[in-house]
Structure formats: structure tokens, C-alpha cells
Amino acid sequence: MRLLVTGATGLLGRELLRIAGHEVVPAYHSQGLPGGVRLDVCDRDHVHEVISAVRPDAIVHTAYRQDDWATTADGAVNVALAAGDARLVFVSTDVVFASRDTPYAEHEQPSPTTPYGASKAAAETAIRALLPSAVIARTSLIIGSDGRSAEEQRVRRLAAGEPGAFYTENVRCPVHVTDLAAALLELLTSDVTGVTHVAGPEALSRLELGRLIAQRDGLDPETLPAVPGEPSYVRLDCRRTQEQLKTRLRPASEFLRGSARIPR
Questions:
Q1: Pairing between strand 170-172 and 204-205?
Q2: Range of the domain at 114
Q3: Are 132 and 50 contained in the same domain?
Q4: Residue 244 lies in a domain
């Protein structure tokens, strides 16, 4: 299988390149990669030219910019339009949903409250119409093992005394980047179509997650500043998707080795 990975210089893109058991072509925007191709997802003609030249059997589309509708929404549509017969897995987000007390299942309609969530929801809608056989994989906060994820970097900054705080009322379902990448590659070669939820099974506040990361990294979790923040409870119910996967989506308190579950 010839696999094209967009956003290949990002945390998830790099992990897909590392573990994929296929011939992989990394696509990047500005930072080059060996054997890769430059891809400007905002340029529809350019996207068509690149995908026609690469001729992938499958595409995992991870490229996005949180503050850029053209990249996140229009870019995803451009990739879907050019995909042809290639199998497409589109990585979406839990913030296509608004805050509520109960988890969201795959069949529920988006209810975004942020521009980023709206751009991902728009991309989901277009891809489902253009490519009914595509997989839309909603995920949550992605955590790594080498400190490259945004949450890990934030822990180090705030532990060092930089301004900012972790929210106690912002709850998500963190996922390890290796678990997510393995699940996406598994979905790629499956007969699954439509919306899937690929996040961790454990709901944590940003503060709880930050403390677990700090403990893993040998930092004092009690030094992390905390404020309530605007309440935001967004949890994905991943049980249906997990039943279709061999990859086990681990809870954060397990994959952040050396740390104990923080009481709620």
C-alpha cells in the first residue's frame, strides 16, 4: 500500500511515519522531509497535482491550523476532492461538540462553539458527502512520550514559573500519540466507514493531566498553577470504535508511566 500522510511534520504525522508498515510518502507545507512532497492544502489545483503524481492507495489527512479556516476546512475538502479512489482517513476533533455532562457517541451531530470546532465540523460534513467510504476519526488531546506535545511543553513552561494556569473545569479524554496512530492505520485497512471516536477512555481535567505529566517527568505537580476556567466538559464515547479495533486505547493514567491516578 502506498500511503500519503499530510501534516507529516506534526506530532501525529511523525508517529504515523514511524510505525506505518506501508510505503509512506510524507507531505509537508514548509519543513521538508526526506522522500516527502510539498503540499499546500489551500491550493486546490496544487493538491490535485500532488495527489495525482503520488498516486496513493490511501491518505491520512492530519494537516490543520487551529486559527485558519482555509487550512482546516477548505484544505480537507481539497484533499477529499483529489483523493479519487484512495482510501481517506480524516483526523477530526472532539471540539466539534459543545460542553455537556454526558459523553458524545459517534452518531451525534456536531455542535461547535469555537471557530476551530466549526472548521472541523464543516470539513466532516463535506467529506461525508464527497466520500461516503472515508473514515472520520474524532480524537482529543494528543500526548507523546518525548515532550513534543503541546500539553507536555505547557507543563514544563508553567512548572518553570512562566505565566499561565491549568483549568480544573476543562475536561477532555487524552490519547497517546502511538495508540492514536496505530488505531488510524488499523482503520485505514478495515472496512469501517463514517465517523469513529478514537480517544482515551479516561476523562481528565487539564490540571489532572498536567499533574500526571509533571509526575512522569520528575516535576512537582503541586507547583502547577490552577484556575477553574470556563466550564467545558467534552468527552468522547469510544466504546463502539474500540470494539472494532485490536489497538487498545489506553487511559492517560496508564500511559503516563510512573504516575498515580489523581483523585477527582
A1: antiparallel
A2: 2-142+175-197
A3: yes
A4: no
pTM for this structure?
0.94
Q: Are 253 and 260 in contact (CB under 8 A)?
A: yes
CATH code where residue 193 lies: 3.40.50.720
Rounded CA gap, 237 and 201, in Å? 8
Name the residue among 142, 150, 151 with its Cα closest to residue 183.
142
Question: For residues 213 and 221, what is the distance between their CA atoms, to the nearest angstrom?
Answer: 8
Beta bridge partners of 137: 91, 196
pLDDT digits (tens, 9 = 90+) for 169-195: 999 999 999 999 999 999 999 999 999
Q: Grid coordinates representing 168? A: 480544573
Those residues with Cβ within 8 angstroms of residue 198's Cβ, 6 or more apart along the chain or in another chain: 137, 138, 139, 175, 180, 183, 184, 187, 238, 241, 249
Sign of CA dihedral 133, 59, 120, 247: positive
Provide the residue type at 251 as one letter.
Answer: P
The cell 512562566 sits on which residue? 162
Contact predicate 83/75, CB 8 Å = no
Which tens digit of pLDDT belongs to each residue from 2-19? Answer: 999 999 999 999 999 999
Domains in the chain: how many in total? 2
